[in-house]
Amino acid sequence: MKTVLVATLLLVAPIAAHAACAATDFAIQDVKVAAVGSGIATRLSVKGKLVNNCSAAAAAQVRLDAKDGSGNVLASKMGWPAGTTNLSPGQSVDFDLGRLLHYQSDMQSYQLSVVEVKAW
User: Which residues, if any, are the signal sequence (predicted)?
Assistant: First the structure.
């Protein structure tokens, strides 16, 4: 019984160490939004940098909301800028989530937020 308890603790300990990282430990910086192209070939570019300010290596999922002039959400997409790679403390990764959305002419503002943190 003692062996099972020790084995369980050894398996859970690494998970608990990563649990300290939260969405607020990540920052989204240097956001640049642009409509690229013209007519029906117009695509959206929403570039930024995701920075891990947590004391442990982890990854973060980012949500992009495109809103109209009244603040209504027209479209939302989520992505993992670093994929299944953990970012070390202080490390950053550049991303472009705009390519996930179909551009609409009434898109007036964009909101990026970290919605989930995970250690792979």
Answer: 1-19
Looking at per-residue pLDDT, the higher value among 99 and 4 belongs to 99
pLDDT digits over 52-85, tens only?
A: 999 999 999 999 999 999 999 999 999 999 999 9
Range of the domain at 78: 2-118
- Does residue 17 have a pLDDT over 90? no
Q: How far from each other are the two terminal CA atoms of the chain, in whole angstroms?
A: 30
The pair of structure tokens assigned to 38 is 């013209």
Closest to 98 (Cα-Cα) out of 89, 107, 88: 107
Q: Going by C-beta distance under 8 Å and a sequence separation of 6 or more, which residues neighbour residue 119?
A: 15, 18, 21, 56, 57, 58, 59, 86
Q: Domain with 92 in it: what CATH number? A: 2.60.40
Torsion sign over Cα 88, 18, 49, 46: positive
Give the closest residue to 67 by CA, choosing from 76, 55, 58, 77: 76
Counted domains in the chain: 1
